[in-house]
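Contributing new complexes? Match this layout with adenosine-5'-diphosphate.
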Amino acid sequence: MTHTAPTAAPPTFTAPAPKVIQGTKEDWELVIGLEVHAQVASNAKLFSGASTAFGSEPNSNVAFVDAAMPGMLPVINEFCVEQAVKTGLGLRADIHLTSAFDRKNYFYPDLPQGYQISQLYHPIVGEGEVIVEMGGGTARRVRIERIHLEQDAGKSIHDMDPALSFVDFNRTGVALMEIVSRPDIRGPEEAAAYVAKLRQIMRYLGTCDGNMQNGNLRADVNVSICRPGDYERFQATGDASVLGTRCEIKNMNSMRFIQAAIDYEARRQIAIVEDGGTVTQETRLYDPDKGETRSMRSKEEAHDYRYFPCPDLLPLTIEQAWVDGIAASMPELPDAKKARFVAAYGMTDYDAGVLTAEAENAAFFEEVAGGRDGKIAANWVINELFGRLNKEGLTVADTPVSAAQLGGMLDLLRSGEITGKMAKELFEILWTEGGDPAEVAAARGLKAVTDTGAIEAALDALVAANPEQVEKARVNPRLAGWFTGQVLKATGGTADPAVVNKMVAAKLGL
Ligand code: ADP
Ligand code: MG
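Output block (do not edit by hand):
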């Protein structure tokens, strides 16, 4: 049985043009499909209660079942299942109420069981999709083939001793979600944007922290080349034989390297084909130091994993009502939030993208914008606050200026009690010293001249003394700015430029 996710229809968009590799004898296009391994955000492993804490003492988070002690039996962690279901719903995918675990057999020192428990035949999540925006109103719809749950392996350590290798089983048995895309990605930038979008969605959901440095999100990247038109034929007929032979680049954990590896791999394959050769299907590794991919194993050497259903685990059955409960508790996701920000606050698509990059950033903005001008709030949050946080390597979680403080400052600006220039000064004081915006402004003498009499007097004096400038400004209103500048100077920068501008225009009859 299948549960279809009750989510909103995808936004309308135009597909970007595929990346065409030029500077070669013929034009070539790229076809890319990704297998992303996302570590499930969970305190305990998939089949044991051992901790998943990163950076623990080697072999300190290992239960008997992780170490494959004889007679130990795996017990599924319900929370990890919930996280996979949540991720599936977030990718608008079908949730399979019945799935099953299989053994993928191979020998490696960091795999004490001698097999990995995975889901080959009956994954928990079926077909879904991700909308990957590529700028200029274009977006690529990348279809998801499946998501299955599986165990991670341990870690072999070869660089601690010249003669010995070590193993650390802390990671052994940690839950992974393998998210398999269709070959719908058409360029290196799209591949990186796709991984970024998956990461963003999972961080919104809290199902994977997306920490690529720690290896919590890594991708196997499948790359092939084809001639213009071939991909459209594949889409129309479903016949994958019109596509080129693919190579798989294993275990990439950096957006930058993903792009560089695809670019290198595409050029390598083109050179082979244009030279009259054929690409052989193989697994390759990317060497970031050399900027090259190199063969790891060919198809002939590929493992025969002798998959079979894991006899230690019953098929996994979940209830529709349980899935519905998870669906009902889903947070607002990035696409929906971004569309709402554009509609509700009248901001640009770009600004909405910046503000919704992380759920915490969006929540901060909404607290500032509540009951205030959304565009002005967006401007201050993005340019002043995020700009400053970025510069100091901080996140919104450790901002010294709270949403309430920033909002209070915007209120002073709006009521004309402080000028834009004063607001920047006040922001600086709030950042370094803190305090209530109104109190700080009063204590530091940050007060705009609201007495229009003083402005009027300065303006009258200027007009009387500069009849030629008045004439010029009447002919060319852009020259009125000179009067504004002079008035601001005369009032010592305490007048609101917007107010002065209006008074100048009125005075000169513009
Ligand atoms: P297998 O059955 O050998 O595992 P799949 O068809 O499941 O192969 O594909 C594995 C991954 O390779 C998927 O992410 C898929 O999108 C990608 N892929 C398949 N064919 C191609 C191709 N011609 N070019 C690039 N990627 C491809
Ligand atoms: Mg496959």
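Reviewers usually confirm one structural detail per submission. For this one: The CA atoms of residues 37 and 178 lie 5 Å apart.
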